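Researcher: Please predict.
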Amino acid sequence: TDAAYGGSAKAWTTGNQQIVGNQLTGTASAGASRLNAGQTNHRIEAVLKNAYGVGLMVGFIDTSNYYYAIPTSSTLQLWMRSAGANSQLASFTTTVKPFDTFALARVDDKLVVYVNDYEVGRVTDTTLATGTFVGVRTAAADTSSAIDDLVVRAS
């Protein structure tokens, strides 16, 4: 839960992810952990600890419908999973390295990606307008990627 440091103790729904050394990482199967933010405008951010396989999700409706951002060493990619199919919405050239904070926010019909609180790009999309969940997505067999210091807030 998020009860530490004054949070309201909302429960996360977890899926095929683990906490190792106080950091979230994947397991042998793909996973998606999520929290109901209670509204469609929200932001999720995390500190990238190593590798690049962990994605942040907003507008999550179910495991077949959500937006997600995944950092690489030279881009921050924005994707949409709709009706179970993944499609890339944008790829923003930027340096993302371990210990950087990356974030994904949804504000009305805009999806905005950040690195260290600097906006690196945005797109407009209304396909998944009703999703109120945020979360973390990991790829199958990705046990080396990890994030820390996860923060969820209204945007």
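Model: The radius of gyration is 14 Å.
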